[in-house]
Amino acid sequence: MLIQFLLIAAVIVLLVFFLKNHGTTKTAAGVKIGFLLFLVLAVVAVVRPVEVSKVAEFVGVGRGTDLLLYALVVAFGFQTINTYLRFKELELRYARLARAIALRNAEAPEPADAPAVVERAEDPAHTA
Amino acid sequence: MADQSDVWLVVPVYNEAQVIADVVRNALQTFPNIVCVDDGSRDGSADAIRGTGAHLVQHPVNLGQGAAIQTGVEYARARPGAEYFVTFDADGQHQVADVVRMLERLRAEPVDIIVGTRFKGDASHIPLIKRVVLRTVVAISPRLRKLKLSDAHNGLRVFNKKVADELRITLNGMGHASQIVDMISQRGWRVTEEQVEILYTEYSMSKGQSLINGVNILFDSALKTGSRR
């Protein structure tokens, strides 16, 4: 069936596309265009459900509703990957921030016979 | 004994207050420079470290072992005179004598990094299930076979300034071991391994990463996209 091919291809294309291009300006623009298309299609589906059914029939799904459901599954997968990657990226930035703070506040050991003062090490945070 | 003042031990610490002071004091007898990275411990590990004579760097929040190692290496490589670096576990399962031997090799041989392995000699002291899993990881990883490494998840590593300067661990959690292997192969660091002894005490067994965590490691490594930036 055509629909099986389309769905699987969509999943693979999205996955590869995202892992390769995540975070670039182009991707961000692509996502926005995709979202606009999605909105347009949503309006079409509401106003002319018959057309959706025709498309569904063409690709080999019985009803327009089923086609919508399938599309939703793909969109959800896409969203999940997107969120996962975004979290990973945030985590990395957060780690770098925390690292900069940690290095700035590093404590060198106190000399054995000196009074107990917390010694601030020189700032090594500019290293990377 | 050789002068070890150009060596820095990097010790990631997370909730190890019970043992960390002893481990650090013991290592300080041989290595004057130790930096402990307290990864947001909540059990007073930082206070335990303060009295020992080791440098202390504290993550304000818990980030994970990979992040702690990266922080420690960044701290150590900025110290004047630092030439050799060691990643050393805080739970006392690594032996100072092994580190000394690895450093001798690193100074004498044309290599950039030496990774500890549990599998070169007799491996029967390693818990069976752990052995099976670690062996499987090696068997299914073409990269490890190509580099002739038998134990990628060994926390004991000794490396030079070149590696320290180029090290960029972006996997905060436990995936960093595989990431280091990737960096070895991508950046062309000359690598070899050395038989080391891991003390499986009751304490270290209770702290050690669970095998189920291997799933997390595999997943993080597969979707490792942050490493490009």
**Oligomeric state of the chains in view:** heterodimer
Distance between the termini of chain A: 53 Å
Most extensive protein-chain contact, per-chain counts: A-B, 26 and 30 residues
Class derived from helix and strand content of chain A = mainly alpha
Task: Tell me the strand percentage band of chain B.
Answer: 5-15%
How far the N terminus sits from the C terminus of chain B, by CA atoms, comes to: 42 Å
> How many helices of chain A does DSSP assign?
4
- Please tally the β strands of chain B and state the result: 7
Inertia-based shape of chain A? elongated
Number of E-state strands of chain A: 0
- Beta-strand residue fraction of chain A: under 5%
Major sheet of chain A, described briefly?
Answer: none
Q: Considering DSSP H and I runs of 4 or more, what fraction of the residues of chain A is helical?
A: over 70%
- Summarize the helix and strand pattern of chain A as letters: HHHH
What would you report as the Rg of chain A, rounded to the nearest angstrom? 26 Å
Mean pLDDT score of chain B: 85
Uncertain residue segments of chain A: 113-128
Radius of gyration of chain B: 16 Å
Query: What is the structural class of chain B?
Result: alpha/beta
Task: Give your account of this protein's structure.
The complex is a heterodimer of chains A (128) and B (229). Chain A is mainly α. Chain A is built from four helices and no strands. In chain A, α1 (2-21) packs parallel to α4, α2 packs across α3 and α3 (49-59) packs across α4 (64-104). The radius of gyration of chain A is 26 Å and the shape is elongated. Residues 113-128 of chain A have low confidence and may be disordered. Chain B is of the alpha/beta class. In chain B, strands 3-2-1-4-6-5-7 form a seven-stranded mixed sheet, sandwiched between helices. Residues 225-229 of chain B have low confidence and may be disordered. Chains A and B meet through α4 of A and β3 and α3 of B.
